[in-house]
TrEMBL record, chain A:
The protein's name in its UniProt record: Succinate dehydrogenase
Lineage, uppermost ranks: Bacteria, Bacillati, Actinomycetota, Actinomycetes, Frankiales
Domain 2Fe-2S ferredoxin-type: start-end pairs: 18-103
Domain 4Fe-4S ferredoxin-type: 150-180
Key words of the record: Iron, Iron-sulfur, Metal-binding
One annotated GO biological process: respiratory electron transport chain
Signal sequence region: none
Gene3D superfamilies (UniProt xref): 3.10.20.30, Alpha-helical ferredoxin
UniProtKB/TrEMBL annotation, chain C:
Name of the molecule in the record: succinate dehydrogenase
Residue ranges occupied by any FAD-dependent oxidoreductase 2 FAD-binding domain in the UniProt entry: 55-460
EC number per UniProt: 1.3.5.1
Cofactor section: FAD
SUPFAM superfamilies: FAD/NAD(P)-binding domain, Succinate dehydrogenase/fumarate reductase flavoprotein C-terminal domain, Succinate dehydrogenase/fumarate reductase flavoprotein, catalytic domain
Gene symbol of the encoding locus: sdhA
UniProt keyword terms in alphabetical order: Cell membrane, Electron transport, FAD, Flavoprotein, Membrane, Oxidoreductase, Transport
Superkingdom of origin: Bacteria
Organism whose genome encodes this protein: Parafrankia colletiae
Membrane topology field: Peripheral membrane protein
Length: 247, 248, 654
């Protein structure tokens, strides 16, 4: 396959940045999207140009490090797929592919396609945990958890923190991310003692980080590689409103 | 970073977000948060929706003829009499609606500004949005409806711009306005915008207020469609009837 | 320039033999009470004094994340580093299968002793009994801890935890969270760590990579790290340093490790005096998706559970290029079922892997480059129905389809072995302290608990045991029992290390040659895979040992690293890591050459039973090989292993 790539190049946070066009020949349809970028970078290095910076690590769709917007879609055209798991057979010979970083005020560009997602870490740090000091845990079977609750908690816990939800949302909102963690922990009996403070503090941090609000457009769940459902946002709203009536 | 065993030197920089600016009262927390503001929008939207439903049903009385309709319009001004004096009920309703509109508009404005700021740069490759037309037109729809309401009040409440403009002659006032093609067109466009607004708003409000089961959301989506169609169709019937000569 | 020195010189001895060493930290006496007695004899740091002490933790995986969170909870100042953009991304996250624990919830005869026994035996008798027993003891606490943190393990309808059997053992002791157990456990540790970061007890440095260790007066007192965004090189000082930096599987270039996984932290520590133990113990997983072409940068593992219902075969004719559905039953060779009739497709990982390699070496492999064998579900679909197969393996089939573009319900899967875990690592004693006092090594980065082969679902167990439960009291003991003088950033020992690190990066940028960093990594990886992969021979290892120094010399002459060091420069990061792999690879081959026996993940073709099984040589090799760095030929220190509880026996699966 021969491709025309238009890639966002930006040297640093202060730089303006622009889309730059590259022609790439002999792309195999079996390549993953990131392997295609690897090949481009190998060429750029030998031509004495700066390779394109992009985040990636596990390359099996679980670490959440990779993620670019491909032709206007976070993680590209395939459903429930991270960028590293997207393969070139999803594209056609001669196609022009636009590659851009996540766009959100809360995710400033570090370089090229690399953005700073540390706001997510601060949301988790403000309440996305159960406070259990190592060694103080009761016997695991002391509290049975109904299977449906455990399964629902698991579904929300599968979030990989990649940020595609924020990138896809026209408001740059982190509601899906925050709702997944709140739902995961607030559903479980172990999470009950901190149920109210958790959601209150996490939402406050989410707002402070400069993420937008939710207008229920549903873009986030479509982009989510793990298919976190919109109902989690409903649950976050409920937990939040409920928390304000307690203590 | 030089230190000895004896002295305690704070070596760990706190990276925690400062919480100083955050309000502590439940109302303060609620009003400051995006979710709180959304809840305000949802509740005030619900109040207005209820009002519109009644308003629309009342409008249909026009098909019973001039006398019946004018009598109905008069009754509206005297509901609650004699327990309430004169037009008190009407004024209470107006006050309630005004509060709802102001809160709805304020939160909409604040949230929209916030949302636009949160996504300052668009994608060079236009995003292919999954969301429906209704979702993407909430803001513009809201503005159209707001402008319409102002015109509507000047037309039928204060009668400032009404061509007939006789107090108490509600039926003739309506017929005279809708005899002008562009007033009717504006009215119909506004009602379609209203339908779209309700279509997304109703269901979205339900989620904002905490509905989180997929089955219930599906039912609410159906309800939203029914309400949207019912309300906009109900309102649009009147000018169409005027245009068609069914009401004159 | 040490980078270009050859460790051995042309054909003469590649190593020298030094004094034997011993693990003096482990108590004697009954194995059941050793850990309790060690904890009791350990000195304690008064809670009020803990915040006067700073601990550096490098890495935020299961071991590092758990250690950082726990140390901070106890009151220490923690400075923690990860090269990823968030502590949540460490490669522990990719573990699929599960975590073992001797809970015996099934009442199926499991016990701490049985888990201990299985692990020592599974490790082919090359692990310390004391360490393994402790691991089995702690395993049950880990499950309690994780459940309390909200880790959503699979549950039964009763609401109680579900378990399954895993990795060729006869009890159901593996706890799991669908196929994402590693993710869920790591997120648990990450959340605990995040809480401490928010509380100001942990100073986190994401996108920051450790490039060297600072040793002062024989003790580890800090690290030198590079901020990957600004390129700034900064020394950090502390009372103790904990390395939790994972394994070295990426020396093979293609492995199931994350792209960023590297050996720089451990190798730099080795160069500063930490012994590196048993590097030749590498585990190869039989069911990975084969590579599709030259450009491939990473291999993906699929759960071993596929072998429960899939049948492995190759065409009987060499170089048969027909599509699989065109090959009649009579012309297929179900070689595992033929050679190992008792276990069939369920033989242990190393045997399945080697058998696949032999078929492919023999020219009967399938797919691109002939590097693959079929894993066929046609019979399973016929027997159970497609729906049942989908229910059981749906997510794996989907993953395979996504990567290869082939539908495994219609076309047999193609699989090939790949490196995915390394049992070797920095040598540590019972306290997890390395041969440099004050430097502790935990998780996959150390060598301690798995011997020559790791059992399935034991990696997560070891990482969390080290981080949550073993390291914290032992680190406290070190701090309480050591008089640590003050150290200044102006200390020549600090500035010289900073200078060395800066100089090395500068040299990499100056070369401006004509080959990319990856091209060297790929070449090194292929060489090591061929000569020090699934089957190793003396001749092959000697060939690799002759080639690696040449390649290293070429690297330092011809590598091209664009950009500069004062910015985000991913090529520079890569080149720096590859430079260390080029040194480490040589030690890996030396260790493999010196260990003339076969055991676990180390298969020397000269040492096999008539059936082609790994043949241990307990008389000569029942020891852990701890290598000391000299700059020239490394020095071998043997730590003899004693087996008082589990009797040495040969594995038998035929």
């Amino acid at each position: 396959m021969n491709l025309t790539l238009r890639i966002w190049r930006q040297r640093g946070p202060e730089d303006r940045g622009a889309m730059v066009t590259y022609e790439l020949a002999d792309v195999s349809p079996d390549m993953s999207f990131l392997e295609m970028l690897d090949v481009l970078n190998e060429r750029l290095i030998l031509e004495g140009e700066d390779p394109v910076a992009f985040d990636h690590d596990c390359r099996e769709g679980i670490c959440g490090m990779c993620g670019v917007v491909i032709n206007g879609q976070a993680h590209g055209p395939r459903d429930r797929t991270t960028t590293c798991q997207l393969h070139m057979r999803e594209f056609t010979d001669g196609e022009t592919i636009d590659i851009e970083p996540w766009r959100a005020a809360a995710f400033p560009v570090v370089r090229d396609l690399v953005v700073d997602r540390s706001g997510f870490d601060r949301i988790i740090g403000s309440g996305g945990y159960i406070s259990v000091v190592t060694g103080s845990a009761p016997e695991a079977h002391a509290t049975p958890v109904p299977k449906d609750i455990a399964d629902a908690a698991f579904d929300n816990a599968t979030c990989i923190g990649c940020g595609a939800c924020v990138a896809a949302c026209p408001n740059g909102s982190a509601m899906l991310f925050t709702s997944a963690k709140v739902t995961h922990l607030n559903l479980l009996p172990q999470g009950a003692p901190e149920r109210e403070t958790r959601v209150r503090d996490m939402v406050a941090t989410m707002d402070d980080e400069g993420f937008g609000g939710c207008t229920n457009t549903g873009e986030c769940t479509v982009a989510c590689p793990k298919g976190i459902p919109l109902t989690s946002i409903g649950n976050l709203n409920r937990e939040y409103l409920r928390s304000l009536t307690r203590r | 970073m030089s230190w000895t065993d004896e002295e305690v030197v704070p070596r760990v920089r706190s990276v925690a977000v400062t919480n100083d600016a955050r309000p502590t009262s439940p109302v303060g927390i609620f009003w400051r948060s995006t979710i709180g503001k959304k809840a305000v929008m949802a509740v005030t939207g619900g109040v207005m929706l209820l009002y519109l439903l009644v308003h629309m049903l009342g409008n249909l009385k026009i098909f019973y003829g001039r006398e019946s309709f004018d009598e109905y319009a008069h009754w509206l001004r005297t509901i609650g009499v004699p327990a309430l004096h004169g037009a008190w009920f009407l004024w209470i309703m107006r006050a309630l609606l005004l509060v709802a509109i102001v809160l709805h508009a304020t939160t909409a404005y604040q949230l929209s500004r916030r949302d636009l700021k949160a996504r300052p740069q668009k994608y060079a490759h236009r995003q292919r949005l999954e969301a429906s037309y209704a979702v993407n037109t909430m803001r513009y729809g809201g503005i159209i409806i707001a402008l319409f309401v102002i015109y509507h009040l000047l037309d039928f409440t204060t009668l400032t711009v009404n061509r007939h403009g006789v107090e108490g002659a509600a039926y003739d006032n309506i017929v005279s306005s809708f005899s002008v093609w562009w007033v009717t067109l504006f009215y119909i466009i506004a009602m379609l915008a209203l339908g779209l607004h309700i279509h997304h708003g109703f269901w979205s409000a339900a989620r904002t207020l905490g509905v989180h089961s997929a089955a219930r959301e599906k039912n609410l989506k159906i309800a939203a469609t029914v309400l949207a169609v019912l309300i906009s169709a109900g309102f649009v019937t009147v000018p169409i009837a005027v245009l068609a000569g069914l009401v004159d | 320039m040490p980078e270009t020195t050859s460790l051995g010189s042309g054909g003469s001895a590649y190593w020298t033999v030094g004094d034997d060493i011993a693990d003096t930290a482990a108590p004697d006496g009954p194995i059941e009470t050793r850990w309790d007695r060690r904890k009791f004899s350990a000195k304690l740091v008064n809670p009020a004094n803990r915040r006067k002490h700073t601990v550096i933790v490098v890495g935020t995986g299961l071991a590092g994340g758990a250690a950082g969170a726990t140390l901070a909870e106890q009151g220490y100042n923690v400075i923690q580093f990860c090269f990823q953009d968030s502590p949540r991304r460490a490669h522990s996250i990719a573990a699929q299968g599960g975590i073992n624990a001797a809970k015996n919830y099934r009442n199926d005869g499991d016990s701490v002793y049985r888990l201990f026994y299985d692990t020592v035996k599974g490790g082919d008798f090359r692990a310390r009994e004391s360490n393994v027993y402790r691991l089995a003891q702690i395993s049950t606490q880990i499950i309690d801890q994780c459940v309390a943190q909200g880790v959503p393990f699979a549950r039964e309808y009763s609401g109680l935890l579900d378990t399954r059997s895993f990795g060729g053992v006869q009890v159901q002791r593996t706890f799991y969270a669908r196929g994402q157990t590693g993710q869920q456990l790591l997120i648990g540790a990450y959340q605990a760590l995040s809480r401490q970061i928010d509380a100001g007890n942990v100073e986190i440095h994401p996108r920051t990579e450790m490039l060297d260790l600072i040793v002062i007066d024989g003790r580890a007192r800090g690290i030198v790290a590079r901020d990957l965004v600004t390129g700034k090189i900064t020394p950090y000082l502390a009372d103790a340093v904990v390395l939790a930096t994972g394994g070295y599987g990426n020396v093979f270039f293609l492995s199931t490790n994350a792209k960023g996984s590297n050996t720089t932290a451990t190798w730099r520590a080795h160069r500063r005096g930490a012994h590196f133990a048993n590097p030749c113990y590498t585990q190869i997983h039989p069911t990975c998706i084969p590579r599709s072409g030259e450009y491939q940068g990473k291999l993906t593992l699929m759960s071993e559970s596929l072998r429960n219902d899939g049948r492995i075969w190759v065409p009987k004719t060499k170089g048969d290029t027909r599509s699989p559905d065109q090959i009649p039953e009579a012309e297929r060779d179900y070689y595992l079922e033929r050679i190992y009739p008792a276990f069939g497709n369920l033989v242990p990982r190393d045997i399945a892997s080697r058998a696949a390699k032999y078929q492919c070496d023999d020219g009967r492999g399938v797919g691109p480059g002939g590097l693959g064998v079929y894993l066929d579900f046609a019979d399973a679909i016929k027997r159970m129905g497609e729906d049942k197969v989908r229910e059981k393996y749906g997510n794996l089939f989907e993953m395979y389809d996504r990567i290869t573009g082939e539908d495994p319900y219609k076309v047999p899967m193609r699989i090939y072995p790949a490196v995915h875990y390394t049992m070797g690592g920095l040598w540590v004693d019972y306290d997890l302290q390395s041969s440099i006092p004050g430097m502790f090594v935990i998780g996959e980065a150390n060598f301690s608990d798995h011997g020559a082969n790791r059992l399935g679902a034991s990696a997560l167990m070891q990482g969390l045991a080290d981080g949550y439960f073993v390291l914290p009291p032992m680190l406290g003991n070190y701090i309480a029992s050591t008089k640590l003088g003050s150290v200044s950033l102006d200390d020549p020992a600090v500035t010289s290390v900073v200078g060395e690190v800066t100089g090395r990066l500068g040299r990499l940028l100056e070369i401006n040659g004509d080959r990319t960093p990856d091209s060297f990594h790929r070449e090194l990886g292929e060489l090591i895979w061929d000569e020090c992969g699934m089957g190793r021979t003396e001749a092959g290892l000697r060939k690799a040992l002759a080639r690696i120094p040449e390649l290293r010399e070429e690297f330092w002459r011809r590598v091209k690293v664009p950009g500069d060091s004062g910015e985000l420069n991913q090529s520079l990061e890569k080149a720096n890591r590859i430079a260390d792999f080029l040194e480490f690879g040589e030690l890996l081959c030396i260790d493999a050459l010196h260990r003339a026996e076969s055991c676990g993940g180390h298969f020397r073709e000269e040492s096999q039973t008539p059936d082609g099984e790994a043949l241990r040589d307990d008389e000569h090799f029942a020891y852990a090989a701890a290598w000391e760095y000299t700059g020239g030929a490394p020095v071998l220190h043997r730590e003899p292993l004693q087996f008082d509880y589990v009797h040495l026996a040969q594995r038998n699966y035929s």
